[in-house]
């Protein structure tokens, strides 16, 4: 049994040695890979260190230039909005003034039209009384003349029938 135990122990020692050798080989391969990656990373970092500062400087300059332009644009917009506001206020004042003046002129025109209409009515009334009164008077004169002629022609002492009818209608 000793012999079997010795064989088993030997097999286990050999397997352990092989596992240790495999682990050492694996560690050596990994160390070599890490070394290669480290060299590549150093190359990339050196390229970045040479190229990045000018890029960062250019980006920073562009940002500060853009900031200055944006600030100028903001100032221009503020000035423009103040000008627009002032012009709007002036336009509002002007429109209010024009509106007030138009209202005043409309009131004056309405007064003038009312005055003209009143004067035209007065003139028409005056003309009617001046023109119609003589015509009425003339008509009354003609009527009286007719009545007189009728009376003399017929030689009646009583008033004509027309006069009687006028008197009856009056009563």
Q: What is the total domain count?
A: 1
Strand content: under 5%
The unreliable regions are none
Radius of gyration: 65 Å
Helix fraction bin: over 70%
Described by the principal axes of the CA atoms, the overall outline is rod-shaped
Indicate the structural class: mainly alpha
How many strands, which pairing sense, and closed or not: the largest β-sheet?
none
Euclidean distance between termini CA atoms = 177 Å
The tally of beta strands, per DSSP, is 0
Write the element-wise H/E pattern from the N-terminal end onward. HH
Count of discrete alpha- or pi-helical segments spanning 4 or more residues: 2
Question: What is the averaged pLDDT score?
Answer: 85
Give me the oligomer status.
single chain
Features:
171 residues; 0% strand; mainly alpha
How would you describe this structure to a colleague?
The protein is mainly α and 171 residues long. The chain has one domain (2-170). Helix content is 95%, strand content 0%. It is built from two helices and no strands. The chain has helices at residues 2-154, 161-170. The radius of gyration is 65 Å and the shape is rod-shaped. The mean pLDDT is 85.
Task: Briefly summarize what is shown.
The protein is mainly alpha-helical. It contains two helices and no strands. It starts with a helix and ends with a helix.
């Amino acid at each position: 049994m000793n012999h079997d135990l010795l064989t088993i122990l030997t097999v286990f020692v050999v397997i352990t040695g092989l596992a240790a050798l495999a682990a050492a080989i694996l560690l050596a391969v990994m160390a070599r890979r890490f070394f290669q990656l480290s060299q590549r990373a150093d190359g990339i970092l050196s390229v970045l260190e040479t190229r990045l500062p000018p890029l960062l400087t250019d980006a920073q300059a562009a940002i500060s230039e853009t900031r200055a332009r944006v600030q100028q644009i903001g100032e221009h917009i503020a000035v423009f909005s103040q000008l627009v506001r002032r012009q709007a206020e002036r336009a509002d004042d002007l429109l209010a003034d024009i509106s007030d003046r138009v209202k005043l002129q409309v009131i004056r025109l309405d007064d003038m039209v009312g005055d003209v209409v009143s004067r035209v009515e007065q003139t028409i009334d005056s003309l009617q009384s001046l023109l119609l009164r003589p015509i009425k008077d003339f008509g009354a004169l003609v009527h009286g003349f007719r009545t007189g002629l009728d009376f003399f022609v017929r030689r009646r002492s009583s008033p004509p029938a027309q006069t009687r009818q006028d008197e009856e209608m009056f009563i």
